[in-house]
Write a structure and sequence with these properties.
With about 220 residues, the chain is an alpha/beta fold. It folds into two domains: about 110 residues, 3-Layer(bba) Sandwich (Glucose Oxidase, domain 1), CATH 3.50.30; about 55 residues, Herpes Virus-1 (2-Layer Sandwich). The protein contains five helices and eight strands. The chain has a five-stranded mixed beta sheet, sandwiched between helices. It starts with 7 loop residues before the first strand and ends with a helix.
Length: about 220
């Protein structure tokens, strides 16, 4: 059974035998308080340990691991007929509890961790979500800034259309009489002029094919 929201408190004693795989020495009577028993894991099932503690008259069983592990197992077994709560703790927690197990009333309290666990999971989920959103937002912001800076740095100089139209233009006439192409090339578009092409005179004193000057922004 689960521990109620108010929790339960009682005196704590180490099991005899320690693994509770044989009949456990009975809980001391006459104190009027609740008695808890600390049991070592191993040699028999969790269910057998808890039933042995219950038969000995204890009101709760604390089973501690016998090995140091990063995570704890879940205690499994047939709960039918078991009416005392049981919890599973780490080896380090068990060793600490054993040092303070003096059998005094109210020295050990077991509280329900359901609400605390749910709240902790909710807080951790929220914090994780905030961190993920912050990382993604920072990445996108840095990426956009880099693309914007890259675009500004590499953008070709822009000349407005009406400025280009004011540049003087001439009709190309081949300086030779052997055909329409005399192998004179535009310095910008690297194409040979054809006889009759309209050319613009650029400020740098080069001439450019009229069609290309209309397509190229600078």
């Amino acid at each position: 059974p689960r521990v109620t929201g108010d929790g339960i408190c009682g005196s704590l004693r180490a099991a005899d035998p320690a693994d509770a795989c044989a009949p456990v020495r009975a809980a001391p009577g006459g104190s009027g308080g609740m008695a808890f028993v600390l049991i070592a894991r191993g040699n028999c099932s969790f269910e057998g340990k808890v039933r042995a503690a219950q038969r000995a008259g204890f009101d709760a069983a604390l089973v501690h691991d016998d090995e140091d592990k990063a995570s704890l197992y879940s205690m499994v077994g047939d709960p039918e007929g078991i009416h005392i709560p049981a919890v599973f703790v780490s080896k380090m927690a068990g060793e600490t509890l054993k040092k303070f197990a003096r059998g005094e009333d109210g020295e050990c309290c077991i509280n329900s961790s359901m609400d605390e666990t749910a709240g902790t999971v909710l807080v951790m989920s929220f914090v994780s979500l905030v961190v993920i959103i912050s990382v993604v937002a920072s990445f996108l912001f840095a990426r956009n800034c880099r693309l914007l800076r890259h675009g500004v740095d590499n953008r070709p100089p822009y000349i407005k259309k009406h400025v280009v139209e004011k540049l003087p233009s001439v009709v190309y006439k081949a300086p030779c009489s052997s055909g329409n192409n005399c192998e004179e090339a535009c310095a910008i578009c690297l194409e040979d002029y054809d006889n009759g092409d309209m050319l613009r005179l650029l400020p740098c004193k080069h001439v450019q094919n009229f069609m290309w000057s209309a397509l190229i922004p600078g």
